Write the structure tokens for this entry.
Amino acid sequence: MRKSFLIFLLSLSSCHTMNIDVIKTGRYFSPKKYTDIDLYPNSKSVKRQFGGIAIFKSDRFDCSVEKQESLLLKAKKMAADIGANGMIYYFDYGEKDPYAKPEEKCFLSAVAIKYLDDEVEEFLKNNQPSDTVSQ
């Protein structure tokens, strides 16, 4: 009974200790509430101009729905800490590593994004390079 309880506790904590590597690709912004982070399954679903400010990649794990939700929440909190507005994410099953353990089936790939504000959008719109060369 003690042994099965210990295994149960370890299974609950396995996703909380899962590592997510972060590569920051942009400048630092003020932190936000993680509840304000918008989640997108792909870049086409983002309806505003944006820039990537960080790349996330998790360790491989057993892709149960509970673990996916827990890991996505952890990444969402990390994105909020660096001031992102949203996150484009994907659970990648990729090529199976022949040396991976049976429970290591997928990993999280994500990009933390920052929306371009109206002033920046206006600047970019008015300062696009022209197709013609002036002489």
User: Anything to note?
Assistant: The longest helix spans residues 65-81. The chain has three helices and five strands. The chain has one domain: 17-117.
